[in-house]
Automatic annotation (TrEMBL):
Pfam families: GFO_IDH_MocA, GFO_IDH_MocA_C3
Gene giving rise to this polypeptide: Dhdh
EC number annotated for this UniProt entry: 1.1.1.179, 1.3.1.20
Residue span(s) of domain GFO/IDH/MocA-like oxidoreductase: 150-219
PANTHER family linked to this entry: OXIDOREDUCTASES, TRANS-1,2-DIHYDROBENZENE-1,2-DIOL DEHYDROGENASE
One of the GO biological process terms: D-xylose catabolic process
Protein name: Trans-1,2-dihydrobenzene-1,2-diol dehydrogenase
Main EC class the enzyme belongs to: oxidoreductase
UniProt keyword terms in alphabetical order: Oxidoreductase
Family: Belongs to the Gfo/Idh/MocA family.
Organism: Chaetorhynchus papuensis (pygmy drongo)
Length: 227
């Protein structure tokens, strides 16, 4: 991909100092809950949650009351039309990432998309193409990319302190057999689209092959057909 342009300076409010980044939250589910809990640990002068939307207005209102969010909407379209937002966090289920992401991007909204960005390369291509066409920010939510330990590891590799990395071996395991989203194809299930992406993005970043010249996957499929 082409290099990103220089970030825009923070917006000022009525000629004063830069105001906080105003977040819109798309979906009132468990992942959005965790995201807002994390966001609330930051100074309100830097980040504020301005609005939340869910497909059910009651759920959005409950979410808003829990976190002190001033505006709640019963549709994602209403959130997309809110003029007082800087960026939207999209925490919907995997199959809804493409249509929901396109909704916000086409309205010129910056988007932080919960991983995975899409169900496959064809969906990611549409999202990235729309973001470039509209000239707006789009990022996949791999929070580990911002850990100090991760930044230090990448610096060591870039400096050649570890030689030329040839192999990365990693393991990440949780008992998720009873979680519907992992088992069901209709929910975008499977370990690669869930937690497996963390290992893959680390390998791509550290081994210097993006895209890789070839890729093999070995595993066992669930009876539903997901990995």
């Amino acid at each position: 991909p082409e290099p990103c342009s220089t970030p825009e300076p923070p917006k000022t409010q009525l000629g004063g100092p830069p105001g906080p980044t105003r977040w819109g939250i798309c979906s009132a589910g468990a992942i959005s809950h965790d995201f807002v809990v994390a966001l609330k640990t930051l100074p309100p002068s830097e980040h504020t949650v301005a609005a939340v939307a869910a497909r059910d207005l009651g759920r959005a209102q409950d979410f808003a009351r829990r976190f002190g969010i001033p505006r709640a909407y019963g549709s994602y379209e209403e959130l997309a039309e809110d003029p007082d937002l800087d960026v939207v966090y999209v925490g919907v289920v995997n199959p809804a990432h493409l249509p929901t992401g396109l909704l916000f991007l086409r309205r010129g909204r910056a988007v932080l998309m919960e991983k995975p960005m899409g169900l496959g390369a064809h969906e990611v291509t549409q999202l990235v193409g729309t973001a470039r066409e509209r000239g707006v920010f789009l990022m996949e939510g791999f929070w580990t990319r911002f850990f100090p330990a991760w930044r230090r590891l990448r610096a060591l590799v870039a400096e050649g302190a570890l030689g030329s990395p040839l192999v990365l071996r990693g393991a990440l395991g949780f008992a998720l057999g009873g979680v519907p989203r992992l088992r069901e194809p209709g929910l975008g299930g499977g370990v690669l689209l869930d937690l497996g992406g963390y290992g893959l993005q680390m390998a791509l970043a550290l081994l210097g092959c993006s895209p890789p010249p070839s890729l093999w996957a070995h595993g066992i499929l669930h009876e539903t057909g997901t990995d």
